[in-house]
Design goal:
The protein is α+β, with helices and mostly antiparallel strands. Helices cover 39% and strands 19% of the residues. The chain has two domains: 113 residues, Helix Hairpins, CATH 1.10.287; 160 residues, Cupredoxins -  blue copper proteins (Immunoglobulin-like), CATH 2.60.40. Strands 3-2-1-5-8 form a five-stranded mixed β-sheet. A five-stranded mixed β-sheet has the order 4-10-9-6-7. Helix 1 packs parallel to helix 3.
């Protein structure tokens, strides 16, 4: 058998292996088989299953391709290693194999793009009409959450504003309008498969819901300054009765409307007037009470008073 014929057989075998491997990649995906260390957090939103399916499909395809490529690399390194008395031979390659490894990835990418596009449109572009409306504004380093008051409109004196506290009824779809006061932040709810940037000067909407009552963290997934690591909020899915009770409590803590339209906006209900508001970047615990500022801020804040006393 000539050298070119042997080379052609090697490439045919490699192509066969690649196609079989790609076919095998779909089998574990259909059964949802994943090692425990590769599984995502439990999905809480109604669309988390669709996102997880796409993620698992891509993971299996790329994982199988990685194993095949690395195996072929090892085989070729061993088979075509330098040997004494063996002369190097130039080969052009195999056109059939080159066509296969061009067409197969292209088809995979097109299929993934079509599947992802449908899910993307359902989650990002079609906002549910019967959803609860909430505004979330990110700033260094906190989340300001605003609910419409009894008039059902934002930007009026009866708005209910909380600091780092987002509550909603379980089973209720929620549309969040994201804003930013200063820099780019990223509103991240890993258990809900929600991650969306909050960009200054833009309003971006996301929606989600919850199947179970529970508490989760709101993270900022964008490096937004030195206090980025402290920027977190708390997301709570309540029963309808508990949510109504909580919202009524927050409305009772909101100061009465100003006498003039140009009066000050309502202060965050999570930090009532009886408590000192938290320092920027200090997130309160889930009970909504303001936390004490870090020791470095306390010491710096007391420096002028200490200087006056010493003098």
């Amino acid at each position: 058998m000539s050298g070119e014929a042997k080379n052609s057989n090697v490439f045919r075998s490699a192509a066969r292996t690649a196609v079989l491997g790609l076919g095998a990649a779909l089998l574990p995906r259909l059964s949802g088989a994943l090692p425990f260390w590769m599984k995502l957090p439990s999905g809480e939103s109604s669309f988390s299953g669709e996102i997880d399916s796409i993620f698992n499909l891509i993971l299996w395809i790329t994982g199988v391709i990685f194993v095949i490529v690395e195996a072929l690399l090892v085989i070729f390194v061993i088979r075509y290693r330098h040997r004494e008395g063996r002369r190097a031979r130039y080969t052009h390659g195999n056109n059939r194999v080159e066509v296969i490894w061009t067409i197969v990835p292209a088809v995979i990418c097109v299929v993934l793009a079509l599947v992802s596009r449908r899910v993307w449109a359902e989650i990002k572009q079609r906002m549910p009409e019967d959803a609860m409306q909430i505004e979330v504004t990110g700033e260094q380093f906190a989340w300001n959450i605003r609910y419409p008051g009894p008039d059902g409109k934002f930007g009026t004196a009866d708005d209910i504003v909380t600091l780092n506290q987002l509550h909603f009824p379980v089973g209720q779809k929620v549309v969040v309008s994201l804003h930013s006061k200063d820099v780019i932040h990223s509103f991240f709810l890993p258990e809900f498969r929600v991650k969306q940037d909050a960009v200054p000067g833009m309003t971006t909407k996301v929606w989600f819901d919850a199947a179970h009552v529970g508490h989760w963290e709101i993270a900022c997934a964008e490096l937004c300054g030195l206090g980025h690591y402290r920027m977190k909020g708390f997301l709570t899915a309540d029963s309808k009765e508990d949510f109504d009770k909580w919202l009524a409590e927050q409305a009772g803590q909101t100061p009465p409307p100003a006498s003039s339209a140009g009066g000050p906006a309502p202060t965050p209900a999570a930090a009532p007037s009886s408590q000192a508001p938290p320092a920027p970047g200090v997130s309160p615990p889930p009970d909504g009470k303001a936390a004490s500022p870090p020791s470095d801020r306390v010491s710096s804040a007391n420096t002028p008073q200490e200087a006056k006393t010493s003098s």
